[in-house]
Specification:
Blueprint lengths: L1 H10 L3 E2 L11 H5 L10 E8 L7 E4 L6 E3 L3 H11 L14 E7 L7 E7 L3 H4 L5 E5 L3 H8 L4 E7 L4 E3 L7 E3 L2 E3 L15 H4 L8 H7 L6 E12 L2 E9 L1
Parallel strand pairs: 7-8
Antiparallel strand pairs: 1-2, 2-12, 3-4, 3-12, 5-6, 6-7, 8-9, 10-11, 12-13
GO molecular function: G-rich strand telomeric DNA binding; telomerase inhibitor activity
Pfam family, one: POT1_C_insert
GO cellular component, one term: nuclear telomere cap complex
């Protein structure tokens, strides 16, 4: 567990970074006064690290605009789903040439109408685990149930002319237990009929990057970020960890 390891590092009087064994130790002051990039070997204490909780290290990164943002929590997603369920599914958008639609009304007090649009393909019947579907009016709990059975789930809502993605604060795609997000600044969402080009392929892979591309979404990547402050008797140095 990295968090426990970092705590141990803080308790030790000295932490030795063992890379570049062929190099002699360099003072931190010398490093901060030198031009980058260069390789050094240091002997220093770990004074602090951020964030303190490991789960806070995971962010969403856009490689196009280089922005970083927090991963939205389930409450945000649920709120958007509740808002979209207020818009009734448009029956004129059901059962097109590239997807089949099923609707039903829930038995709860609100009697919500849910519409699921199954993208047509051979595997829809033979291998449901390889199927992509679009859902209107579902709750977060209902969507998570569907992810256990089907390969890809896209939450959508009806317009007059086509199905469309929800607000990009919500994930535009769910695959297994992974939620995929798009950059609000760099994306230009297209209507769902853009997906028909992938559906027409002999064996669609339903790769998130391919789905994002045809839907005009700039895919955000999960990244792991931490900041370490290292000290020796000559000065301090901030070290940043950034990794996919």
């Amino acid at each position: 567990d990295l968090e426990l390891h970092l705590q141990r590092c803080q308790q030790l009087s000295v932490t030795v970074l063992t890379d570049h064994q062929d190099l002699s130790n360099t003072d931190l002051k010398t490093i901060t006064n030198s031009a980058a990039p260069q390789q050094y070997r240091i002997r220093a204490k770990l004074r602090t690290y951020k964030p303190q909780k490991l789960h806070q290290s995971v962010k969403l990164h856009c490689s196009k605009c280089n922005s970083l943002q927090e991963v939205p929590d389930g409450d945000d997603f649920n709120f958007i789903l509740q808002g979209s369920s207020n818009t009734a599914s448009n029956p004129e958008l059901h059962n097109t040439s590239w997807y089949e639609s099923v609707t039903w009304t829930t038995q709860d007090q609100k009697q919500r109408e849910i519409a699921i649009h199954f993208v047509k393909h051979d595997e829809m019947l033979k291998h449901p685990e390889d199927t992509l579907l679009m859902i209107e009016g579902g709750t977060l709990k209902e969507i998570w149930k569907l992810t256990k059975r089907f390969k890809c789930i896209i939450p959508v809502r009806s317009t007059e002319d086509d199905l469309e993605l929800l607000d990009l604060t919500a994930p535009f795609l769910l695959q297994g237990n992974v939620k995929y997000y798009g950059c609000k600044q760099c994306s230009t969402p297209k209507p769902m009929k853009s997906l028909s080009s992938i559906a027409a392929e002999q064996q669609p892979s339903w790769e998130p990057s391919e789905i994002a591309q045809v839907l005009g979404i700039e895919l955000l990547q999960y990244v792991f970020i931490m900041k370490f402050t290292l000290v020796d008797e000559t000065g301090a140095l901030n070290a940043y960890l950034f990794d996919y």
